[in-house]
Amino acid sequence: MLDCLRPEIRAMSGYTPGEQPRNSEVIKLNTNENPYPPSPKVLEAIRHALTGETLRKYPDPLGTHFRQVAGRVLGVDPDGIVIGNGSDDILTILTRAFVPQGGTILSLSPSYLLYCTLAELQGARFLTVPFTADWQFPSAWPDLDNHITYLANPNSPSGTCVRLDDIARLAERNRGPVVVDEAYADFAQENALSLAREGRVIVTRSLSKSYALAGIRFGFAVTTPQLAQQLVKVKDSYNCDALSLAAAAAALDDQPYMLAMRAKILATRQRLEQALPSLGFRVTPSQANFVWAQHMDRPAQPIFAALKARNILVRHMIYPGCEGLRITVGTDGQIDQLLQALREIV
Amino acid sequence: MLDCLRPEIRAMSGYTPGEQPRNSEVIKLNTNENPYPPSPKVLEAIRHALTGETLRKYPDPLGTHFRQVAGRVLGVDPDGIVIGNGSDDILTILTRAFVPQGGTILSLSPSYLLYCTLAELQGARFLTVPFTADWQFPSAWPDLDNHITYLANPNSPSGTCVRLDDIARLAERNRGPVVVDEAYADFAQENALSLAREGRVIVTRSLSKSYALAGIRFGFAVTTPQLAQQLVKVKDSYNCDALSLAAAAAALDDQPYMLAMRAKILATRQRLEQALPSLGFRVTPSQANFVWAQHMDRPAQPIFAALKARNILVRHMIYPGCEGLRITVGTDGQIDQLLQALREIV
User: Chain A partners of B123 at a C-beta cutoff of 8 Å?
Assistant: First the structure.
């Protein structure tokens, strides 16, 4: 049966997610999880939903309650929200909705590696445009005729944002939709929800980072009700389970808790950004819950390995002409240990 | 942005899942849920996994613990198991792995309507071969050059099984893989796991029916380790959440509980099958947790509507040249109420 696989599938190497060690002694600063637990109201909501009756029955395929809560909290039309099994599910749905086999997907570079994987899976061409040196849009775009443009904003690995008016201009000139992947937007100063409301871009969100819910897999798209109706045809009918739906609604509903976690993470991020230069790192000012750090005169790999030997896991990322360490903003205690280890290493 | 959708997406009407009323007074016999709650050990496993630490971290992308349990219980290689967010997710993964745009998907007819939706989403042709009058394979097949063949076994809406040696023969002669969709296999007398172990077919399983876990979305594929490795590239990295993984492993691990539910459902199925003919229905002997009932001289729609007016929901299914009611085997009490209502209606 291996011979019957689509050649694109055989050829691809597959997306490699960050390491997920089951050893709880590891200080895990490699996949941008939130270092704090989710709101107690989330655990309460799951406990409340956790009955034999809820488990044995299919969940609400459209996540009506979640969409109502999210619509109210974010000030968007609930009918313009599409629920996903993580925002990766939403990115898959969007790719399948807009990109034909042989089509093209555009992304800036370096950015989230999954966009390339999505193109490979769809049998589409993947084109990239390099960011400017300060992680902004280039002045000239080679191709505006692509089927979808993915824009991680804040971007990974840089943690930087491009300007909203640049996004709006790109969306106007581009043939296919511009998808603003806002997995990290709750840590940033602004977001593109206003553009999504007006149907100028599609915004995707994740509950894995700012809401500390990577374990339940929940994300969503914000677009127009008309487009949402079409995207629902592409998703699995029951793509979100009953417990995740309950958790997600409770998480969105507890904004004070999320904002308190956010404030702590932003304060720790500032400490980390201020400490790394004295250890020889160049740090890009971040609007996300991670920091992109490049050592001035030492390669990243040995630093990564020495940290790992001390049970501290960060992400070593290599792009054409550019490598560095992407360090998740952990708790103050975790960042203290990281900095202490780096002092010994570099 | 609507103009930018792939024409296949705009053209399709989308899969319509069975109605999911939130009104708990409805006797819900329309989507083949298990009428009994899942094993208490499943609820215990979820409660045990339900910590802030589990929720904030990404789950194991490969579901290693679940695969070990399932491998042991089913007597298959854990490395040949691929986890899915419901078996619909697995069917999507298989379609994307094997079927190019413009390819062909074959299914018997009438069968699970999702196979056609999967073909539409992939931009593939959907071909069907009619079952024989007694729901077996036809002697002549028009096309064995398709990219994938989906075979629901037991089939929906009929509840019937085709013979294993017929499946083996089809798999030998077919170019693309034969996927035996065994969502209902735990209610049947035999299954195709032995063929999957040998790499002759791919088997898909769901925890929604026999394990009473439709609410958590969990399914899996059984194939060879070599093919499983390829399919993992097609799935979302974290397609199964931490609580579902814990629930699924506990469910598989409690075979005595599943077998006890199965025994009750089979006994009730027999009662239902024996009672319906006296009410004028022709009943197909079922190997699933539902019964396909066609009234001898009355159309199905008014019966469906009259039941619905009495808060009893069954599934009215219409296929070319064939319609009927697909009735989920509920508890004895629910089936008593159904039969009482039918006595008043027909």
Answer: 100-101
Residues of chain A with pLDDT under 50: none
> Per-residue pLDDT tens for A182-213?
999 999 999 999 999 999 999 999 999 999 99
| pLDDT of amino acid A143 | 66
Task: Tell if the CB–CB gap between B92 and A46 is shorter than 8 Å.
Answer: no
Q: What is the DSSP letter of B98?
A: H
Two tokens, residue B148:
């994938």
B8 close to A97: Cβ distance less than 8 angstroms:
no
Query: Which two structure tokens, joined as six digits, stand for A306?
Result: 């020495």
Q: Which two tokens stand for residue B321?
A: 């040249």
Kindly compute the dihedral angle of the four CA atoms of residues B253, B256, B259, B265, in this order, to the nearest 10 degrees: -110
The rounded Cα A227 to chain-centroid distance in angstroms is 22
Q: For the sheet containing B322-328, what is the strand order?
A: B27-29, B312-319, B322-328, B290-295, B281-284
Percentage of chain B surpassing pLDDT 70?
100
Q: Are B50 and A57 in contact (CB < 8 Å)?
A: no
Beta bridge partners of B206: B219
**pLDDT band, residue B143 (cuts 50/70/90):** low
Which residues have C-beta within 8 Å of that of residue A133, sequence separation ≥ 6? none
CA distances to A257, A259, B37, B149, B269 from B331, in Å? 43, 47, 11, 34, 9
| Gap between the Cα atoms of A149 and A127, Å rounded | 9
From A328, A91, A336, select the one nearest A221 (Cα to Cα): A91
Looking at the predicted complex, does its ipTM rise above 0.95?
yes
DSSP type of residue A109: E
Residue A23: both structure tokens together: 């050893």
Q: Chain B closest CA to A196's CA: distance in Å?
A: 11
Task: Name all contacts of B313-317 with Cβ < 8 Å and 24+ positions apart.
Answer: B313/B19, B313/B21, B313/B26, B313/B27, B313/B28, B313/B29, B313/B30, B314/B29, B314/B30, B314/B338, B315/B18, B315/B29, B315/B30, B315/B31, B315/B157, B317/B110, B317/B157
Judged by DSSP in three states, B194 sits in helix
Enumerate the residues of chain B whose CB falls inside 8 A of the CB of residue A123.
100-101
Of the partner residues A5, A13, A42, the one whose CB lies closest to the CB of residue B55: A42
Degrees to nearest 5, angle at CA B37 with B35 and B39: 135
Note whether A58 contacts B214, CB cutoff 8 Å.
yes
What values do phi and psi take at A117, rounded to 5?
A: -60, -40
Cβ-based contacts under 8 A for chains A and B: 254
Picking from B5, B18, B10, B7, the residue whose alpha carbon sits closest to that of residue B304 is: B18
Q: Which residues of B touch A223 (CB under 8 A)?
A: 1
Chain A contact set for B54 (CB, 8 A): 215
Inter-residue contact A164 to A201 (CB < 8 Å): no
Helix A242-253 crosses helix A64-74 at what angle (to 10 degrees)? 20
Residues B105 and B99 sit within 8 Å (Cβ to Cβ) = yes
Contact check, Cβ <8 Å, B85/A236? yes
